[in-house]
Amino acid sequence: MPKFPQFSGSRATDRPAPFAVEFHLLSTLPYDDFLALQRRLAYEAGGQEDGRIVVLVCEHPWLISVGRRGSRGHIRLTNEQLRARQLRVRWVSRGGGCVLHGPGQVAVYPITPLDRHGWTVGEYLARLQQGIAKTLSDLCLRPTTFPPSFGIWGRSGQLASCCVAVRNGISCHGVFVNVNPMMTNFSFVDVVPPEEVSEGQKSTMGCLAAERRQAISVPKVRAALIPNLAAALGTDHYHLTTGHPLLVTLRKPPRESRHRAS
């Protein structure tokens, strides 16, 4: 197994967290609903003193998100082709480049108060990467990295993309692990700028099913990922919840006006 960037194990901030990481399993979540929920949770995290970490785990309908290192030139499809393939493009304020999302990809969004834990952004990314690497190793895969870039590759392409943002000391966005999505469109989207690709590295995403050359399910990968990610974030205690109560509130349509125009 390759060596990954390490976080220090000797600091006080690396003692087991005094709380359980809260994982919310959200099934398939429209991207706009996710953005609204993440915004609310990040706002609430700024007012909490215990350093709790809330993690959203979901899949998304087909969509391309473009981060600060991505550009329209990294999507090798015309506007007409995007419409024909029913692919929307969303520009988002996060690190990383273009990521094609869809069913069969596990999206993991830890809302983490980095300042409460004393973690730099680099240390936080190293933790996420180690949690994913341990998961892939547990699934009998051989992950590869290309420092200083964060992310994990296999022979089929990038298997996990780390794309985070930090605002007021709170992390948002996260990690995308390609399990078994339909791969038709992935060859047209560069998750890494082609001009920055190292020897042996692919600019596009592959998937775990292609690496294993046999079936693998999203629930199996998700179940393996959750304890490894909790451990990487400093605790072996975690809670699992299906759904999130705030989604009901955020999805409520505005009340109709009592006075209708005649």
Question: Can you put this structure into words, describing what you see?
Answer:
- The protein is an alpha/beta fold and 262 residues long.
- The chain has one domain: Bira Bifunctional Protein, Domain 2 (BirA Bifunctional Protein, domain 2), CATH 3.30.930.10.
- Helix content is 27%, strand content 23%.
- The protein contains 7 helices and 10 strands.
- It has a 7-stranded mixed β-sheet, sandwiched between helices. The chain has a 3-stranded mixed β-sheet with strand order 4-3-5, with no helix packed on it.
- Helix 4 (121-138) packs across helix 6.
- The longest helix has 18 residues, at 121-138.
- The chain is globular, with a radius of gyration of 19 Å.
- Residues 1-14 and 256-262 have low confidence and may be disordered.
